[in-house]
């Protein structure tokens, strides 16, 4: 249906029907979306049409008669509403920075390896790292819960939780390594991880990067300059002092804020599955590192893109929810979004594994476990990821202990089984529209 525009010659009297066509063409963009002639009548009133003009110029007895005529002449057009802003738009710089921050502390190991390496040193560092990883995961979750109430509550949680985790990890390493340089380095590792966790909770990534400058600079000159033992030991120590000072300042500033009235303190059991997942993930990554150390580097650096894709999954799922008209349709769109995000995460890891000499299939299976578990945790689904990750870690860890050196078959089977289970659970739970509403 098209509007007929009247042709009016000079000196010719305008026919009422032509005048109505002209008015319809003029107001078509505002009459088209109307769902009732009364809306058109309100529009005409806002245009200031008088009863005399309606009768003499347009040939209608009243406003409502003209409105009904215009409503009939103009075809219905309902323009799409403007697209809503993505509530889950990721911060590209922050995600990239967090990925780098997960990997850059590893430069302290080649910088200081000649100072602490001895029998039992690696085992002590692994145990301390696993304790720190598990504790930090649980503590970070609890701190984020408290942060929802206020910065004061989160600050108090970190004030007591971060030192406790560092003491626990450092104590375990000291028991295993004894009074050796390896124990001192384990203390450094534990203190750094605890303080870094504080800064990450408070979104102080740039400050954390600044504290790593001494270690980064020292490691950067190693291929050309031998800095000597004092510099090798002093630069990580300087980083530890800086990161503790900055973390302490962040906690102090948070604790000084006014407490939130009526804040509820969640029980420790709420954060327990997050800590257990951290333990299981740590075992899987450590076992992969024992076979191929560069595999740990690849996985660590991939955590930045992984976090970015978690945001993209949520944003794309919300967009799919707006477009879907049935639960089944949304379930199909949700599965496509999940598969696409996982594929985008895994595909770059294949050439990275190839060039670093790591087995591609086990690394991709492990990466799928980590990303899918993190996705479920982002939706508050914690126990299933923790259980499946721990089961995979138990199988891989037992194989590494009972049949050293461990081959790639058991890690591949265990991680693949865990990844399939996590994906199935994600499709089941996240394929519901209510999960994204």
Give an account of the 3D structure.
The model is unreliable at 4-14 (pLDDT under 50). The protein has helices at residues 16-26, 28-31, 37-46, 51-56, 63-73, 92-103, 108-116, 121-149, 151-177, 181-201, 205-211, 213-220, 229-255, 272-291, 293-301, 303-323, 327-346, 349-356, 360-378, 383-402, 409-430. Helix 9 runs antiparallel to helix 10, helix 10 (181-201) packs parallel to helix 13 (229-255) and helix 14 (272-291) runs parallel beside helix 20 (383-402). The protein folds into 3 domains: 16-73, no CATH class; 92-270, no CATH class; 272-437, no CATH class. It has 437 residues and is mainly α. 73% of the residues lie in helices and 0% in strands.
How are the SSEs placed, and which strands pair?
Elements (H helix, E strand, L loop, with lengths): L15 H11 L1 H4 L5 H10 L4 H6 L6 H11 L18 H12 L4 H9 L4 H29 L1 H27 L3 H21 L3 H7 L1 H8 L8 H27 L16 H20 L1 H9 L1 H21 L3 H20 L2 H8 L3 H19 L4 H20 L6 H22 L7
Helix pairs in contact: 1-5, 3-5, 6-11, 6-16, 7-13, 8-9, 8-10, 8-14, 9-10, 9-13, 10-13, 12-13, 14-15, 14-19, 14-20, 15-18, 16-17, 18-19, 19-20, 19-21, 20-21
